[in-house]
Write a structure and sequence with these properties.
Elements: E1 8-15, H1 19-30, E2 35-39, H2 45-50, H3 52-68, H4 84-94, H5 101-109, E3 113-116, E4 118-123, E5 126-130, E6 136-147, E7 151-153, H6 169-174, E8 181-185, H7 189-200, E9 204-209, H8 220-232, E10 236-239, E11 243-248, E12 255-259, E13 264-267, E14 269-272, E15 276-278, E16 310-312, H9 323-341, H10 359-362, E17 365-368, E18 373-378, H11 381-386, E19 391-397, H12 402-407, E20 414-420, E21 425-433, H13 440-448, H14 453-456, H15 469-478
Helix pairs in contact: 1-9, 3-4, 3-7
Length: 479
């Protein structure tokens, strides 16, 4: 039985309490706006329990061991297997054991009201929340509703897949034991990271990649170096191959994967790392004349086009499906909501103002935590050329940098910067190699701030560090 209650009015209603929704709520409350936040699962969202935190907790011991094995005087001490139980316990701790008490306490500390249940739009500035016990709450917003519901893993509609108990990223990051044989479908970030983890923990990994390389959204050499390392670690990577069917008789039994070539593979688990879809299918979008299940198109303040009150922040707007970019958008959207609520005119044409998500167009950073790491920001060479820029790609061997040689014996890596020849600024940077994730923010600053090459020349990297690669790239460019 549904128990209806009278509507409760807030300045802002946020649907989705992951990192993005939490940040929108925080910004709204900081501006003095009353705020409700709605969540149907765990407060803290995908990143905290099934994505960023558990996956990186799993990867850190794997990469640390690999780094140690390349250091003289230490390599002989780390030749044994990883302590699987300790690795999984480390993961569990970083996922807060799938309990959200700490996240709830934080939201309560900023003064946001939490509603547990499924939130749906019911009209302009109106949201209903159906709780786990069937209780319905009706919320209205004076100023804004922010949709921060994120995205979900897409599993292709293959014969047998619905009954095969397949893995998505959620199962891959939260599994309680190592599968003997793991098939990974897809060669993107989730695919390569999970192949790295489970392969290092003892699984026999087979990767089925429809395209011709891994990490297709990065420079080709990134995927090549990661593929070489995965193959060296024992993974069987098959390019130009797709899964055509999946069959499993019981939840814990073996799974048979039919390939489009007519062959078949038997494994203990199969992970589909084949993309994401917006979690907007059960959001009530039709009540405000938007298409259910669609990505939501927004302006640079993250306001949904054609509305004056609805915001879509994070994955749902499809601008950059990354937690750090979603939190960046949340800061922008929160500031814009507050300014509009207070009647402060927004400088819509100020691309570097507090109310414009400029970086989502040109300076999106990402790190892939494999061994070697791959990191990029901005445009690849192909993307820059396709956009019509007159560019030059400047490449350098990372292993030739003194700091890299000290970091690891036999260091292998590569760096590339994409120079806009007309403006002499950087449009993109890519690094691949052990320990390069921490290099990326310097590249992000250079790309986002459009620092001229002539000024970058005076940003002297410390010797001997891996960051000396900046000097080598600039020397190569200047000739």
């Amino acid at each position: 039985m549904t128990h209806a209650v009278e509507p409760v009015e807030y300045d802002v209603v946020v649907i989705g309490a992951g990192p993005v929704g939490e940040n929108v709520a925080d910004r709204a409350r900081s501006a003095g706006l009353s705020t409700a936040i709605v969540e149907s699962e765990l407060i803290g969202g995908e990143c905290s329990y099934w994505a960023c935190m558990p996956s990186k907790a799993l990867l850190r011991p794997v990469v640390a061991r690999a780094d140690a094995r390349r250091v003289p005087g230490l390599s002989g001490s780390v030749q044994g297997p990883l302590d699987t139980a300790a690795v999984l316990a480390h993961r569990d701790a970083y996922a807060s054991h799938w309990k959200d008490d700490g996240q709830v306490a934080w939201l309560e500390s900023i003064g946001a009201d939490i509603y547990r249940g499924v939130g749906r739009l019911t009209g302009t500035k109106a949201v209903s929340v159906t709780g786990p016990d069937g209780t319905e709450h009706r919320l209205t917003a004076r100023h804004a509703v922010a949709v921060c519901t994120g995205s979900r893993a897409v599993v292709p509609d293959l014969p047998g897949v619905a009954d095969a108990f397949v893995w998505t990223s959620r199962e891959a990051t939260s599994a309680k034991k190592v599968p003997g044989r793991l098939v990974v479908v897809g060669g993107g970030v989730v695919g390569v990271e999970m192949a790295t983890v489970w392969g290092a923990l003892g699984a026999e990994v087979t990767m089925l990649v429809r395209g011709t390389g891994l990490l297709p959204r990065m420079e080709p050499f990134a995927g090549e170096l990661v593929a070489e390392a995965l193959t060296g670690a024992g993974a069987d990577i098959r390019f130009g191959v797709s899964a055509a069917s999946v069959r499993r008789q019981a939840p814990v039994g073996p799974v048979t994967v039919g390939l489009d070539s007519g062959e078949s593979i038997e494994a203990d688990e199969i992970l589909f790392a084949t993309g994401r879809a917006p979690r907007t299918d059960d959001l009530g979008l039709e009540t405000v004349h938007l298409k259910p299940g669609s990505w939501l198109t927004v302006d640079d303040s993250c306001r949904v086009e054609g509305t004056g009150w609805l915001y879509a922040v994070g994955d749902v707007n499809h601008r950059a499906l990354l937690t750090h970019q979603g939190k960046y958008q949340a800061r922008i959207a929160g500031a814009a909501i507050a300014a509009r609520a207070q009647g402060v005119p927004l400088l819509e044409t100020d691309r570097w103002g507090a109310h414009a998500a400029t970086a989502d167009h040109a300076a999106v950073p990402q790190v892939v935590f494999t061994d070697p790491e791959a990191a990029s920001v901005g445009l690849t060479l192909a993307e820059a050329e396709q956009a019509g820029h007159r560019v030059r790609a400047v490449d350098h061997d990372l292993g030739a940098v003194a700091g890299a040689g000290l970091y690891a014996d036999g260091y292998r890596g590569r760096a590339r910067m994409i120079v806009d020849l007309d403006r002499e600024i950087l449009l993109g940077v890519t690094f691949v190699g052990p320990g390069i994730g921490e290099l990326l923010h310097s590249a992000t600053i250079a790309v986002a701030a459009e620092v001229p090459i002539e000024r970058l020349w005076h940003a002297v990297p410390a010797y001997p560090t891996i960051s000396e690669i900046w000097l080598r790239l600039l020397e190569t460019y200047r000739g």
